[in-house]
UniProtKB/TrEMBL annotation:
It is found in: Secreted. Residues 241-373 form the C1q domain. This is C1q domain-containing protein. InterPro entries: C1q_dom (IPR001073), Cerebellin_Synaptic_Org (IPR050822), Tumour_necrosis_fac-like_dom (IPR008983). Transmembrane segments: none annotated. Pfam families: C1q (PF00386).
Length: 373
C-alpha cells in the first residue's frame, strides 16, 4: 500500500514590512536569494509548535507542501463469520478487524474502528483507542451487540471484534474497517478495508430445507439398497441365481470435493459418497448404465451470486434442467429408460458472471437402478 507524506516549509522574513508581503513564488525566490528570509522545515507533527513561533505580524509565512511517495506494507483484514446470514437460523455474527502477516512496516496501532456503510452514509459501530477499552459507538437494542478488542505493542496481535446476536437482513451489507497506525518513521497513517455480509431470503431457506430433506431421504434409500446388496452378495447368491434374478444393484451419490468455479462443460463431482456397482466414474463424473433398465436420477446445484443453468445429459441430449439465481439452490429429478452403455452426466451451459459452485452436500448428483428390463 502507498501513501503520501506531507512536509511543510515556513518562510520567515521579519525585516519585510506587512505592506510589502505579496504571496508570490517569484517574490519568495528573491527573498531567499538575498538572504532576507529563511526556510524552517519540518513534518506536520511539528506544525502546531511552528505556528506558535511564527504567527507574529512581522513575519511572512508561506506554506509549501512537498509530496514524498513512500511504500508501506500494511495488510488490513476484515473478516466476517458467517459470510452469509440466515435470518431466524443464524444465532450470531462476528465482524473482526486486524492486521495481516504482511504488515512489517507498522510500528504501532493507535486507533481501530468498525463502521457500517449504507450508500453514501457511514454509521460508526465500534472503536478502540490506545489506552482505552473497546466501546460501542452507536445505540443497539438490548443484548444485541458486544465488542471486544486488544491494542498492544505488537501490531499483529491487535484486533477489534463486534458480535451481533441473532443477525437479520438489516445486519447484512457492507462493513468498513478503519485503522490509524504509526509506521517505522513514526508518521501517523490511515488505512481502511471493506467487506460484505450476505443475507438469504426466508423463502430461499424454506426451499433449501425441502431440498435437503429430499436428499436425506434419497441417501437413506441408497443406504438401504447398499445394505440389501451386501446381504444378497454374502448370503443369498444361491437363491438369487435359482430365481433367475441376475440384475446388479446399482446406486451412487457424488458431490464436488471442493468449491470451484462454475464453468460450461461437464461439472466435476469427484467425491463419491456411495457407488454400489461401480457404474459411476468420479474422475470423469459420468454414469454408465451397466444393464438395460429404468433408472432414477436426482441433482441439486448450489451456487453463490449471479445466474447459472445446468442440464442433465443423456448421451448428449438434455433431459432435465436446473437454474439458480443469486445465492440459490436448485434441484430436479428424472426417470430414464437406459440401455447398457448409455451415459448420464451434469453439464454447465450458462453463467451470467463468475460463479462459485458450492461443495460437499450442498451440490449433489445421485442415481440408481429402479429395475432391470
Amino acid at each position: 500500500m502507498q501513501y503520501v507524506s506531507l512536509t511543510f516549509c515556513t518562510l520567515s522574513c521579519p525585516d519585510v514590512p506587512d505592506t510589502a508581503k505579496p504571496a508570490s513564488l517569484d517574490y519568495v525566490g528573491k527573498l531567499l536569494k538575498s538572504r532576507k528570509a529563511k526556510l524552517v522545515c519540518g513534518d506536520f507533527r511539528q506544525l502546531e509548535n511552528s505556528e506558535s513561533k511564527i504567527s507574529t505580524s512581522n513575519m511572512l509565512s508561506v506554506f509549501l507542501c512537498f509530496t514524498v511517495l513512500v511504500t508501506v506494507n500494511c495488510e488490513l483484514l476484515l473478516t466476517t463469520n458467517p459470510e452469509t446470514v440466515l435470518p431466524g437460523v443464524t444465532t450470531k455474527m462476528d465482524i473482526r478487524c486486524s492486521l495481516g502477516p504482511n504488515s512489517q512496516e507498522v510500528s504501532r496501532v493507535m486507533v481501530m474502528q468498525l463502521e457500517k456503510v449504507n450508500g453514501i452514509h457511514i454509521r460508526p459501530l465500534a472503536s478502540m483507542t490506545t489506552g482505552e477499552d473497546a466501546k460501542l459507538d452507536t445505540q443497539f437494542p438490548p443484548n444485541k451487540a458486544t465488542v471486544t478488542g486488544l491494542l498492544t505493542s505488537d501490531p499483529k496481535a491487535c484486533f477489534i471484534q463486534l458480535t451481533l446476536a441473532n443477525p437479520d437482513a438489516e445486519d447484512a451489507g457492507e462493513y468498513l474497517c478503519v485503522m490509524s497506525v504509526l509506521d517505522r518513521s513514526y508518521l501517523l497513517e490511515r488505512f481502511d478495508v471493506r467487506g460484505n455480509v450476505n443475507a438469504t431470503n426466508p423463502d430461499d431457506i424454506e426451499a433449501t430445507t425441502l431440498v435437503i430433506q429430499e436428499l436425506k431421504t434419497l441417501q437413506r434409500q441408497i443406504k438401504e439398497i447398499s445394505e440389501r446388496c451386501q446381504s444378497s452378495c454374502t448370503g443369498s447368491s444361491g437363491s438369487a441365481s435359482s430365481s433367475g434374478d441376475t440384475a446388479p444393484f446399482v446406486a451412487f451419490t457424488a458431490y464436488p470435493a471442493a468449491r470451484r468455479d462454475f464453468h460450461r462443460g461437464t461439472l466435476l463431482f469427484d467425491s463419491d459418497l456411495v457407488n454400489v456397482g461401480g457404474a459411476y466414474d468420479p474422475s470423469r463424473s459420468i454414469f454408465t448404465a451397466p444393464v438395460n433398465g429404468t433408472y432414477v436420477f436426482t441433482a441439486a446445484i448450489s451456487t453463490d451470486d449471479f445466474k447459472t443453468i445446468t442440464e442433465l445429459k443423456h448421451n448428449g441430449d438434455t433431459v432435465a434442467q436446473l437454474a439458480t439465481v443469486s445465492d440459490d439452490q436448485a434441484s430436479n429429478s428424472v426417470v430414464l429408460e437406459l440401455e447398457g452403455g448409455d451415459r448420464v452426466w451434469l453439464e454447465g451451459v450458462y453463467q451470467s458472471s463468475n460463479v462459485t459452485l458450492y461443495a460437499d452436500k450442498d451440490t449433489i448428483f445421485s442415481g440408481y437402478l429402479l429395475h432391470a428390463s
